[in-house]
Design brief:
Layout lengths: L9 E3 L2 H10 L10 E7 L7 E8 L5 E8 L25 H17 L3 H19 L16 H9 L6 H9 L4 H13 L12
Parallel strand pairs: 1-4
Antiparallel strand pairs: 2-3, 3-4
C-alpha cells in the first residue's frame, strides 16, 4: 500500500532524509507514528528510485513508499550520517519538522548514558538544525513556503518568534562546529573496543 497523503514518488536527497521523514510523517492508518524504515531497495543508479517499506511503531501498519533520491549517502564512517549535501532545503521535511527532530535528538543525547552515543546523537541533532537553516533567505523570518502542512503553518502563525533566524543561529552557536563534531564521531568509530574484563583501564 502506498502512502495516500502525498503523491509518489517523493523527492529526497538521500535515504537518510527518508528515514528522518518517516519519523515526522504521520501514519496514513492511525494518524500517529513515528514510522520506521523496515526495508529499502535502491536508489537505482539510473532512475534514482528507492522503494521502501515503512512500519508504524504505534499501530504496526506497513506501507510502501517511493522516493527519488538525488544522492547516495556513504554507508560507512561519519559520512554515513549525511542528510543533504546540497544547499537547497528539503521538499519532504519542513522547517518546523526539522526543528522537532533537532529537539528530539538533543533530548535523546542528554538522556543517553554512553558518551559515544551522546556524541553521535548530538551530531545528528546539529545536522538537523543545519537543514532547518537552509529554509532562510535574507529575512529574519522564514517564508511561508518553509511550512508544508497546516499544523506547521499554524505553529508559525501563533509563535513566529520561535522561527526567528537569529534564534536558530544562537542555538547553533552553542554547539561545536559540525566539522569538530564529525571528527569526534569519526574518532569514536576508530577507537578499539575495550574488553569488558579491562573495564578499570581508563
Amino acid at each position: 500500500m502506498t502512502d495516500p497523503l502525498r503523491p509518489q514518488p517523493l523527492l529526497a536527497h538521500t535515504l537518510n532524509e527518508v528515514r528522518y521523514y518517516l519519523t515526522v510523517a504521520v501514519c496514513p492508518s492511525c494518524g500517529k507514528g513515528p514510522r520506521e524504515l523496515d526495508h529499502a531497495e535502491g536508489p537505482e543508479p539510473a532512475s534514482r528510485l528507492a522503494v521502501v517499506t515503512a512500519r508504524c511503531r504505534h499501530c504496526s501498519h506497513q506501507d510502501r513508499l517511493e522516493f527519488l533520491c538525488r544522492h547516495d549517502a556513504p554507508t560507512e564512517g561519519v559520512e554515513a550520517e549525511t542528510i543533504n549535501p546540497d544547499t537547497e532545503p528539503s521538499t519532504i521535511i519542513d522547517l518546523a519538522q526539522w526543528l522537532s527532530l533537532f529537539y528530539l535528538l538533543v533530548e535523546s543525547a542528554a538522556g543517553d548514558s554512553s558518551p559515544v552515543a551522546t556524541r553521535r546523537r548530538g551530531y545528528q541533532a546539529a545536522l538537523c538544525l543545519a537543514e532547518a537553516l537552509k529554509f532562510y533567505g535574507d529575512d529574519e523570518l522564514p517564508p511561508a513556503s518553509a511550512f508544508f502542512g497546516e499544523a506547521s503553518a499554524e505553529i508559525f502563525r501563533l509563535h513566529p518568534e520561535k522561527f526567528a533566524r537569529q534564534k536558530l543561529r544562537d542555538m547553533q552557536a552553542k554547539l561545536p562546529a559540525l566539522a569538530v563534531m564529525a571528527r569526534r564521531v569519526a574518532r569514536d568509530e576508530r577507537s578499539p573496543r575495550r574488553p569488558w574484563w579491562r573495564f578499570w583501564r581508563r
